Amino acid sequence: MEGLLLGLGFIGVAVAILTPFVKSATGLTLISLALYFNFVGLETWLPVILFTAGLLLIILEVFIPEFGLLGITGIVLLLMGLYMTIGDLSQTVRDLSLSVVITAGVVLYLVRNGYSLTNVNKLVLNNDLQKKETQTPEERRVVESGMEGTASTPLRPSGKVTFGEDDLLYDVLSIDGHISKGTIVIVDKVKGTKITVRKK
User: Fold this and answer.
1) Residue-by-residue DSSP string for 138-187
2) Any idea where the NfeD integral membrane domain is (predicted)?
C-alpha cells in the first residue's frame, strides 16, 4: 500500500512535467505523498523535509541535466527521508523500487503517445535566443534526412535546432535522449512536420 501511494506521488510529478495537466498532476502528487507519510506515521518533520528537498533537486535536474550533482544529491536526500520515515532499509528499497517501476511504465506510455519535455523546454529557453520561431511555408527550408544542424536549446528530448546559416528555429525530437545546447546533430528522419535528430 505504501509503495503504491509513493508511486502515485512520483507519477504525478512525471505527468506534471510531461503533459499540460500540471495542476491536476501536482494535486495528485501532494495528496498521494500526504497519505503516504500519514499512513507510515511520522515522529518529526525532518524526513518530510529531506524527502521534499530530494524530490525538488531531482526535478531541477530535469531542467539542468548537465550538472548531475543535483540529481545525485536529490536521490540521497530522498532515500534518507524515506529511510527515516520507515526505519527499515529493505522496505525503503522495496517501496522505492515499486514506485520507480510504476512511474517508468507511465512515462514510457506517455512518451509513446507523443508527450515529451516540451513544457520544460518552454520554461528554460534562453532569453538570448532572438531568432524567429514562427516560420511561414515560404521561409522554411526543406529539411531532409542527413542534414546537419546545431542545437540552439538543450534537447530533452525535444527542443530547437538551426540548420546552416538559416536563423529560423525548428522543433525537433532527439532519439539519443538529452543533447546539450550547441551540439552538432544530424537529421535522422522527417515525417510531415516531425523532425527527429541524433548526435553527430
Assistant:
1) TTPPPP-TT-EEEESS-BSSEEEEEETT----EEEEESSS-B-TT-EEEE
2) 3-108
Say which amino acid occupies 151: A
Q: How far apart are alpha carbons 169 and 135 in whole angstroms? A: 8
Domain boundaries, the chain: 2-115, 120-199
Q: Which of 147, 129, 157 is nearest to 185 (CA)?
A: 147
CB neighbour list of residue 152: distance below 8 Å, 6 or more residues apart = 129, 131, 159, 160, 161, 162, 169, 181
- For 104: left if phi > 0, alpha if psi spans -120 to 50, otherwise beta; the answer is alpha
Rounded mean pLDDT for each run of 10 residues along the chain, 200 residues in total: 78 83 86 83 81 83 68 84 80 81 84 64 44 47 83 84 81 84 88 85
Burial of residue 145 (CB within 10 Å: 0-12, 13-18, 19+) is exposed
Q: Closest Cα to residue 197, out of 167, 154, 168?
A: 154
β-strand pairing of 194-199 with 170-174: parallel
Which grid cell sits at 136? 511561414
Retrieve residue 68's grid coordinates. Answer: 548531475
Q: What would the CATH number be for the domain defined by 120-199? A: 2.40.50.140
